[in-house]
Amino acid sequence: MTESTDYTPEFSRRIDIRQVEGKNAHVEANEAERATLAKRFGLVRIDSLTADLELTRLDRKVEARGTLKGAFIQSCAVSAEDLSVAVDEPVFFRFVPEAQDHVPDEEVELTADDLDEIEYTGTHIDLGEAVAQSLALAIDPFLTGPNADAARKSAGIGTPEDNGAFAALKGLKLGE
């Protein structure tokens, strides 16, 4: 992903890769950062966002392994009611120097290990933005609450099962 030079992440915690070996990092979003992240991710609000990471470096590659914890309020995808969500999950990032040999429109083969890689330029990595992106991946875009079925019914909308690929088969009886 190419970013313009004037982009500033809402939750930035830059660290020099030359100073990470064997260090642990605790990153925590403050109130203003949580408010802008909530807007970015379409959440009502983010009450807390922290990560505790163990950092290791091999040459210019840095690995960060730890735990992401967060609490936020998200709207139900059907009824729009506020739902409280807690996240507590392991995270892993590998920061690698930006590739210099990329050819535009060239087909690239990715391995599972490549999917957790975040490219950087210079000598600094951004732990805050990596944590923010992990939070984004933890958000369920189709989260529904206890009043979702009632909201569907009052709007005249069936359940997902009623509208799915096999909904037409539901009314058929075997042997007819």
Structural class: alpha+beta
From the spread of the alpha carbons, the general shape counts as: globular
Q: Classify the helix fraction into a percent range.
A: 10-25%
- What about the largest sheet? 5 strands, mixed
- Please mark out the parts with pLDDT under 50 across 5 or more consecutive residues, or reply none: none
The number of distinct β-strands equals 7
Termini gap: 56 Å
Strand order of the largest sheet: 2-3-4-5-6
Strand content: 25-35%
Mean pLDDT: 84
What is the number of helices? 4
> Strand-and-helix sequence, N→C?
EEHEEEEEHHH
- Rg computed from alpha carbons, rounded to a whole number of angstroms: 21 Å
Please provide a written account of the structure.
By secondary structure, the protein is of the alpha+beta class. The protein is 19% helix and 34% strand. It has 4 helices and 7 strands. It has a 5-stranded mixed beta sheet, with helices on one face. The longest helix has 12 residues. The radius of gyration is 21 Å and the shape is globular.
